[in-house]
Amino acid sequence: MTRVLVTGATGQDGTLLVRRLVAEGAEVHGVTLSGDRQGVWAEPELAAVELHVADLADEERVRAVVAEVSPDEIVNLAGQTSVAASWADPVGTIRATGLGAVTVFDAAFALQDSRGSAVRVLQASSAEIFGSAQDVPQTELTPLRPVSPYGAAKALAHEMAAIYRSRGLFVGTCILYNHESPLRPDTFVTRKITAGAARIAVHGGEPLRLGNLDAVRDWGWAEDYVDAMVRVLRHDGADDFVVATGSTHTVGDFVRAAFARAGIEDWESRVQIDPAFVRPVDASIQVGDASKAARELGWRPTVAFEEVVGRMVDHDLRLVRGADES
Prior knowledge:
single chain, 326 residues, alpha/beta, Rossmann fold, UDP-galactose 4-epimerase, domain 1, seven-stranded parallel sheet, two-stranded parallel sheet, 10 helices, 13 strands
């Protein structure tokens, strides 16, 4: 039985990945900040997953968990995950998201050396490493030019993944573009939009306050991206793979689609631009070329943009209406 350690296990991607690994029969261990089993983590199918409390910024604790679990595979999803929040705590972001990943790689390398058998690592990289990208669309060969503390932290981890790969550790990376599901917390703008559209559709009230509606992104369905992670982790050789749809939409497009799904066509009157939500520096056009993943992994996205938004809005409408009935 394959033993897998997943950091950031209770986040969106971690939860979806753990569900899949458990269904496949793997022995799964998760790393979280608190160990709390809230929401979907209270479900019976996740009860067998042992949670280990650790902060990726705590090098000693991370090394102890890796040594204790002695996994065959490690998926590193943990760290500070918000670009906007990284501006409020750039040092903490570098420690957890950048140096924390390096600690995971080094702990895996030490484990592999001590027990004499291979350890595979999957690093969740990000399109934010490209930042002010010189290529449109971006590929695995696009130079790294991050424009935020989060992007810089992910760039550090991405470069160190290649270095540990050169030392004989299997470290594959998924350069993940924006991917969403109802498991996104409302600290992410996409979930803020779908939850806001649902609230306004059912109750009306205050307009939705947002930042830059012209930002261009490449959005996909989170379960598709978790499938790509598994494919990279189990690939014949460790490598970097862009995981993206290749299609672009603005934040304004996301807002329009969300309100339309909620039954509101006149969305402009329900949205207020608030300078407080505008990032100091925003990445340029983010759109990925995932042809390498299609060619070598057989991976392709399965859910189109409008349906991604629609599924999230439907979920949030059920939540709002359910709260009214309780």
